[in-house]
Each structure stands twice: as structure tokens, then as C-alpha cells.
Amino acid sequence: xxSDFYSLLGLPQDASAEEIRTAYFEAARKLHPDxxxxxxxxxxxxLIQEAYDTLSNEIKRQKYDSTLPAQKIGPEVSIKAKYxxxxxxxxxxxxxxxxxxDVNCTAKFDPTRYPPINICIVIDKSTSMAGTRMDIVKTNxxxxxxxxxxxxxxxxxxxxxxxxxxxxxxxxxxxxxxxxKIHAIRCSGATEIFQGLEAGISAxxxxxxxSSVKQLVLIxxxxxxxxxxxxxxxxxxxxxxxxxxxxxxxxHEWNDVFLDKLASSSGGNANFIxxxxxxxxxxxxxxxxxxxxxxxxxxxxxxxxxxxELVYAFRLSPDITPLDPGSPINMGSICYDNNLSVLLxxxxxxxxxxxxxxxxxxxKVKMEIPTKxxxxxxxxxxxxxxxxxxxxxxxxxxxxxxxMARLTLYRMHENARxxxxxxxxxxxxxHLHHLATHLLADGNRELAHTVLMEAEHIHQSHRFSEExxxxxxxxxxxxxxxxxxEHNTP
Length: 490
Known about the structure:
The chain has helices spanning 5-8, 17-31, 41-55, 58-67, 132-146, 179-183, 193-206, 228-240, 256-264, 276-290, 398-421, 425-441, 445-461, 466-488, and strands at residues 77-83, 88-89, 95-105, 117-124, 153-159, 163-171, 213-220, 243-250, 270-273, 293-303, 308-317, 321-323, 329-335, 340-348, 357-368, 376-388. It is an alpha/beta fold. It has four domains: 5-67, DnaJ domain (Helix Hairpins, Orthogonal Bundle); 77-110 and 293-388, Immunoglobulin-like; 115-290, Rossmann fold; 398-488. The strands form three sheets. It has a six-stranded mixed sheet, sandwiched between helices. Strands 1-3-14-11-12 form a five-stranded antiparallel sheet. Strand 5 (153-159) and strand 6 form a beta hairpin. Helix 2 (17-31) packs antiparallel against helix 3 (41-55) and helix 11 packs antiparallel against helix 12.
């Protein structure tokens, strides 16, 4: 089959005429040759023109739809919401409400129908990566490629202050011819992450697998300077085009706030690589997850009542990362055999006017499904609760209590970091001592020791150490992953 006109415009098959018109004008504005110097923009512009000409004409659209393979319109997923309260009390003060969203795939996994993967490994080859670090990255990159299916596409980019595409998009079955090129990567120069991202995205686009799951894995040990916003803009573009970024920080000198934001905005996550086993484990888990993705680039575009604000969002599974709570939220991927679980925290303003019900969020979840002919589909979701003048005390559901208990440990570190940044050292060390107490009670002695050592370091130097900060941050995240694994096991 030729181009999917609906996916070209980023629309599901049930899109309205107004949605088709809006999507076309937005795409045309970005891709018009006068505004976009990219060599491929002109060809893409002509394709969206053709798509609009067809879909905006009722007769042409009916004829086009008749050529599409028969498929059920609507994603094969179920969405369940658990609320921390059965109703919202009428209070004259600010209050918090928590919602745990569980998104489950109801389709049966069929490996014979799963499309090829298109993956690009983007490797920092700056001077600081020389030696053992680079050797470990090369070895694990080659091991990952050897595990891919013959029709999967792989590319490799190496960057410092300039980027080089070491392996152009190549079928995994042919990769043996290119292993020597990966081994030949030599370290030099400084770290400019924008250069690597730009080359990696270009390689994924050149791979020409339009229906594939596209993944970019960034591996770096350093901080980028001056191009952070340009990197964020690229990540936003990746989200629009269905490319997921996963970032791996090697050692402890890299900027965790930057990599977290970069990865999560595209639906991916950042990971702390402190030893060779961490990298090998990540690659194994990532490959296992990619081939079992039902839908990716799952976004929730929503509005809510004026009294309600979504202040915090955190993905608990299939992987762990904080999410930007602004609409639309990029929630990540839905896997065949693992829930997509997201914990939402809402702040509710004082309710001085009688209201019977509050709408927390109302909108649609949009997702890309690589196994379907029309790959973009959506599902309406509305989160709302009745308002009660009087409400007896009640306990939240066990699933929310467990999620919040684990998340509390991670947020203790988050709060301590904010307090250090704000100069409140005493409060920061107090938070860390509370965190260590909880960890000891749960039997996590090694992480508790790291926390106590970091509290002493902060007391003396008035700042977190680079290594201690990352060990605590990603260590408490790992506890959430363990909890999520237990929760999702049948």
C-alpha cells in the first residue's frame, strides 16, 4: 500500500472534516518549501497536499477508505482510573487528589505481524569517553545489534562537537559488514549533544520504514553547553514524528535534569549507567520492550475545570520517569503484556461555590499503532468526581497507597534537591535523614548509606555531589520499577 493519508496528517480514520482541515494547514505551515529548507520537506509537502485533497473530498475519501484493509476502528485498550477519594469534599482550602491511570492492551500479541524496528544508537565520542567507557559502549552496541531481527533497521551515529553517521540505516542481517566501523570509533573533542541528535533523527528518517517503531538511544558521559533549547526543540519534533528518545548517562558528570526532560518529552526515559552491567541490562530490557509495543507516542490532550490543576505526573510502568504535567502529556508506550501506569496529582482550589461535580481532565488519548494500516487512533477519557458537602474519612485504594509510598521516597530526594538549590541546607539534610530511615526500614541498606553520606556532604559543602545525587535519584526510581513489576505480574 502507498502512503497512509491519515497518518501523514497525524489523524485517526474517524477524523472530522474540521480536524482534517486544521491538521493540513498546520503541516503545510511547517513543511512549505519557503519556510522549511530541509531537502525532504518539498516531497513531504506534496504528500500532505495529496492527502488533504483526498480526505477533504467526501467522495474521494470514501473511495480511499474502501482501499484500506478492514480493521476495527478504535484502539484495543482498556483504561481504568483509581481515585484517592470516592468524592471531593467541599473545602474552603486547597486540597490534593491523586489518580492512578492503568492502560491495558486487550489485543493478543502476534510476533508474525509485528513490523520491523528502526533504531539508532547515538554515541558520545568526546575525549572523556576514551578508554574503558567507550570499549563497553562499543561491545554492548554490537551485542544489541546481533539480537535484532533480520529485517530490523539499525544505524549508529558518533558525535563530539561534530557528528558522523558511522553506520547508515542497515538491515540487521547485514550488520556484520559494519562491526569494524563501530570498533574503529575514536574519541576526541567536546560534547555537543544537538549534533548527535540531529544526525540520529536524520538517520531514522532515512531508514524509510514508515510503519516501524522508531527509537533513538543517546549515550553520553558529559554536559552539553549552549544548545539545550535546540535539543528540547528536536525532542518535541521527535514526539510529533513518533520517534522515542532514551538517554543513558555514563558516569556522573552528565546533566540529569536535562536528559530527563529531553527523553520524557518524546515518551522515553533517562537512565544512570554506573557500571557495564547497567548498560547490558538496559539494552536487553529495551529490546525486549520494543518488540512487545502495541502503541507508542501515547499522548493525552486535555482540559479541566478552572478549580483544578494537574501539578505532577509520573509514569510508574513499563518504565519509570517524571512527566511534564502540561497538556498534552506524552505518556510513552503501551505494551502487550505490561500496564502503562501513570500517577497524576491534582491541586484543587478552595471550593467556595456549590458544585455538584468537578472535571479533573477531559480529552482524548492519541496513539500510534504500528500493526494497523491506519496507525493513528484515539480514545476519549474523562476524569471527574462528585463534590460532597460532608465526607467521612476513608482510605485510598491499596494500589494508590503503594504507588504513593514508593514515590514518596523519590520525591523526598526531589525536595531535598530543591531546598539545596534554594539555600535551605538544614531542611534538605532533614529530608535526606528521613529518606535514609525509610530505606533502612525497607531493607535497602546500601542506598540508605549513600543517602546518609550525601547528607553529610551537603552539610559541609552546601551542594549535592554529582555522583551521590544520581545514585539517590535513580536508586529511588529503581524501587518504583520493582514495585511496578510486582504490581503487573499476573
